[in-house]
Predict the 3D structure of the following.
Amino acid sequence: MIYTFFGGRSEEMGDGMARTPWDNVKAARAGNSAVEGAYAAAKLAIELGEQVRGMREERGWSQRDLAKMTGMTQPAIARFEAGGTTPTLPILERIANAFDTTLSVELKPKAVA
């Protein structure tokens, strides 16, 4: 049996659940401005998390170490590093202080396509 999800094609797995390849889902949602905005926000959260994780690992710190320095919990640091949360400016400032860096927020014009 074949199932349809957002215009994409998915096949029933042995457990009776339908699975849709991510590329099919993404293609079906392309052009939807709300979806594109959500993807952009998710991308930013993931990039910030990756940067913090890289800086933390360069210093040999554990997530628990960074959490103590920022007044956060280790699970909160883990969610942030995984891109699961979008941090507020005060949280970013606390993280920047822990790394002895400055926080820089920049607004740039969008590229013209």
Q: What stands out?
A: Confidence is low (pLDDT under 50) at residues 1-10. The radius of gyration is 19 Å. Helices lie at 22-29, 33-58, 63-70, 74-81, 89-98.
